[in-house]
Amino acid sequence: MKLLKKGAEADLYQTKWQDSKAILKIRKIKKYRNSSLDSKIRKQRTIKESQMLSHVKSFGVPTPLVYFVNLDKTSIIMQEIPGKPVHDLPPSQIIDLSKEIGRLVGTLHKNGVMHGDLTTSNFILFQKTVYVIDFGLSQISIKPEDHAVDLRLIKEILNSAHAKIMMSSWKNFLNGYKSIVGHAYFTQITKLVSDIESRGRYAQVV
Length: 206
Hints:
The protein has helices spanning 35-55, 91-110, 144-161, 166-181, 183-198, and strands spanning 2-6, 10-17, 20-27, 66-70, 75-79, 84-85, 113-114, 123-126, 129-132, 139-140. With 206 residues, the chain is an alpha+beta fold. A hairpin with a 3-residue loop joins strand 1 and strand 2 (10-17). The relative contact order is 0.12. The mean pLDDT is 93.
């Protein structure tokens, strides 16, 4: 078993499941929390994430298969998607794929799912398909405000991690998003994104 990533909420390991490469995600114990409360929170989030990975497949969003869930260890074994994170692709490819990412996010929102951690590292390109990963902060929500927070985050990531191609990528993302959610909802959400940006604790993204 090989450690791939240490995160604030969970650690990721490369492992095997019935001779197939797999990812083991283990939620960390938070010692600052009451132990029984911490256990309950980690179990709830493990259940929610595993269910969400399967749920979004039902309306056509590509995600890793869930192989096994261990609630005692608050861990999930899932399919390893052997492609590349969009974050690591050449700029021209990120611009092109931004429209598909917009469509995927639009599909999530149209079906009442907020991802909660929309970064270009959480989209993986494998064999011409873009997969969405890491639903650890996701939630069922039809609230436009929640969907606007999703868009605000991906916009912020494009501006910070992909500044030189931000405008082109954001435009393509919005075109893809609008093609799924429709003009009226698109207008509502983008206005909310502007509202969020205008609040004092957020820096305006050009």
